[in-house]
Amino acid sequence: MKELKRIQNPYNEAKVIDACSVFGMMDQSGKCFSGEGVIRAIANMHDRGNGLGGGFAIYGLYPDLADYFAFHIMYLSVQAKKQTEDYLNKKFAIIQCEEVPTQPTTTINDPPLVWRYFTSCNKPPVKEFIEEEYVISCVMEINTGIDGAFVFSSGKDMAVFKGVGYPEEIAEFFNLKQYMGYLWTAHGRFPTNTPGWWGGAHPFCLLDWTVVHNGELSSYGINRRYLEQFGYKCTMQTDTEVVAYAIDLLIRKHKLPIEIAAKILAPPLWSEIERHPKRERELLKALRQVYGSLLLNGPFTVIIAHHGEMIGLTDRIRLRPLTVGTKNDVLYLSSEESAIRLICPNLDSAWIPMGGEPIIGRLTERQPSSPTAEGVGSSAN
Amino acid sequence: MKTYLPPKFIVERDTERCIQCQACVSQCSFDVHSYDSEEDDVISQGDNCVGCHRCAVFCPSGAITIKRNPLQYNENYNWQPEVIEDIKKQAETGGVLLVGMGNDKQYRIYWDHLVLNASQVTNPSIDPLREPMELTTYLGCKPDKLDIGPDSKLQTELPPQIKLEVPIIFAAMSYGAISLNVQKSLARAATEMGTLWNTGEGGLHPTLYKYGPNTIVQVASGRFGVHAEYLDAARAVEIKIGQGAKPGIGGHLPGEKVSDEVSVTRMIPNGTDALSPAPQHDIYSIEDLSQLIYALKEATNYSKPISVKIAAVHNSAAIASGMVRAGADIIVLDGLRGATGAAPKIIRDNVGIPIEMALASADNRLRQEGIRNRASIVVSGGIRNSGDVVKAIALGADAVYIGAAALVALGCTVCQQCHTGKCSWGICTSDLRLSKRINPDIGASRLANLLRGWSLEIKDILGGMGINALESLRGNRLQLRGIDLTDTELQTLGVRMAGS
After folding, report:
1. Active-site residue list of A
2. Residue A289 and residue B138: Cβ atoms within 8 Å?
């Protein structure tokens, strides 16, 4: 079995530490837009990264193939590609596949091969088939079992593009300006201890959930041990992985609404809880009593996204920056306000949220106006 | 029979300083000092001195110095003075050697081989003087998940939880072993600081019922003082299976100590020996424990967490798992260093395992089985300072018990004479003349001060780590590193080597 830990963390640190810039942009009407603005915005925060990782997640990307799981997979060798495709053919019906188009750039050296596959599950003859579990286990199998292969993303009608380089370089490499989506998140990375590995860049993706993250969790040790009890294997040893699994556990498995999940990851102080009316107090108290091990302690800003929702959240004493901007239906989340102002100088409003206060963007009920966005939001919630 | 035992201490009196006030004569409960009225002179005989330093502290002119008798036997690593003297004692008495306090042997203290982390550059440390820092802890069984209704209404009912403002509880010490004034001090300090004290197996004296909301009552093998009101008064009920100082051994409170008040509280006749059997005679197996747990839950209408305390022994991880599955809401592990009012010396010094190892493996086991949330873990046995508390919590404990440390705060100098009932500090005695030496007002304030000081230190340590809530430290072993430990020790503790 391949040890992701070794690739991701060659010095065998207790955890991989990095800091970053994050950016998110969502049109809550569901209208799709090109990545040009997002790329300029994240490039404006160039100095927050060190060129060892950049990436983007795009939702509403494949409206014509929105019913199929879109696997974006990177390969370090032709053999890895063959092995992975053999595996995919066994587990899925591949409807369409192709190499992800790239263009040569001066700064991206020795890139891996990146392919995308649109697939539907070959249902095994088991009684209770849960599609999501099936896809997750296949992704884990490829990531940990096949040498030189790593799944960038595995959701429907969305994809992650990432690699080693500054985010603007990654955008150029994948020619992201050509793509349209109603929700984009972006990340520029500053790892302190890894030489950089394409799979280790953000966004981190599980099904259609993506996480971009700026921070270092002092609570990582217990967050990880808690999640391991529920069968999650933290193979990447990053804080971001822990955030993604926590979200998966709370929202997908425990079926808690995102607002409640935010109160678990960044709960109010006990003294604040005491000041709430009885019903809320009992709820907040129970959340901390039961899910205390998932409190993300230490500095972080995350932008979590899935179909139909984008959530910005900081730690409860806001040790990492997050600025919110709105303009009509568009919600911006950014490490720095300047990045938002650059692409949208006349915002309706801009503010810095309180620590631990989730900022949630949601698709509105109304049908998307753009014809290209057909099918967008079909899998929302 | 003439004793062949040499004196352990030398008591020196500086005659220049001594003012013949006889404070030492009245303070010493071991008859070391006497007053010769004909000569108008105070005389000190070192033979009986136990090294408790009561006289030295209370001498108004600082005339008394107590030194260890150097006892220069021929040097022999195998035949140390303690070994020689123990043999002589037994040759003279033909009995089991009794002793008080905890194991004093040179077993490795793992706390001293664990070091803590702090934030530098990549994340900020937090200043507890300027930022909130939370130590609040809830003990009790937690469900695996919460169900929330559509209107954000909590639909899962939680089992009873106990709130602790500081994760430090006063350990079980029974009335009879310690004096009523010491229990009053503990109960008042626990109430003031938002934590708990534990009755031990001696019942709850009528004057202490008002501290019930901060009291853990014990149900042990002798069932002394257990009745409906006793259970009703408490915040939690603890079933005592064993204790770290004497795993597998019962208790014996001699009849001389069973005074009127002790008799009423323990519900036994005045002057009779209080014998606690070695096992609980209705618990010969794990399913019997479950029956007692649920009998107590029924008796208290499922309103109080039920705790089960065992001594840390070889397979305590597996036992802990069984206890949780049997329905315990809190499990208590009492380690090799756990103290006692009286225990056979050979047991105290040789039976049980270090608490650090027992804790690490029990926490691991419960996590592997996915049942860690179903019970809180409290550890005890040799916790000396806030550093030990932080390390215990990082290894996986929810809270710690302190016994000896609390008594030291009241004056105890760990002279290990608890079993004699002659404690000159008035702590471990039922002698009314001696127990008056503890003033519950002063005692409570000393104990509360200790907890206050440790809380401030814990907040400083947490802030340094960049953590502002205790639950983010609990079981967070990445905040620990080992020093001078073997691979097997590191592996058992689940801790990485310093520098790695």
Report:
1. 20
2. yes
